[in-house]
Amino acid sequence: ITPREIWNEYLLGEDYHQQIKLHETVKKNEQFYEGEQWEGVNAPDLEKPVINIFKRAVTYMGSQIISDDIGISLEPFGESEKTSGICRVLNEQINRVVEITKAKSKNREIIRDAAITGDGVLYAWFDPEKGNSGEIELETIDNEKVLFKNPFERDVQKQKSIIIVKRMLLDEA
User: Fold this and answer.
1) Are residues 146 and 167 in contact, defined by beta-carbon separation less than 8 angstroms?
2) Nearest partner of 116 among 151, 143, 139, judged by Cα
3) Are the beta carbons of 162 and 148 closer than 8 angstroms?
4) Whole-number Å distance between alpha carbons of 163 and 146
5) What is the DSSP letter of 20?
6) Digit-coded pLDDT (tens) for 3-23
7) Binning pLDDT at 50, 70 and 90, where does residue 89 land?
8) Who contacts 94 (Cβ-Cβ below 8 Å, separation ≥6)?
């Protein structure tokens, strides 16, 4: 794939975001969530009461969804010393990764993001430079910074390419 092809995919993704007015909608939703419901209203003589029901609803629904942290537990199909040992080691490693990556708090972030902006994105990758033999990393990403090659394909795994725009790139543009 050439830089020109990547740039063209980026432009197509940005064009789609513009068509659905994603950036404007996210900005408006974030302002509403923060209690700025009167942003852009030209009514200097009227009182502008703020009752932030939206923030309370999002917080309540998020807490209901993640009232119990999600956990993973592996158990062998056939009981043997070898398979039990393997499952024990895997369970320890999974718990270690969840702890190191702060996955539980990031899950809460993406639930909040999904409620406000429409999508919650958690990006996972392996960083071979971290630790002795590399570490799994997790990062929450704003949905405005994720550009799918085919925005109509619901299954992310079937995407031919996904562009994740880092803040630095957007700031320089």
Assistant:
1) no
2) 143
3) yes
4) 6
5) T
6) 898 899 999 999 999 999 999
7) very high
8) 72, 74
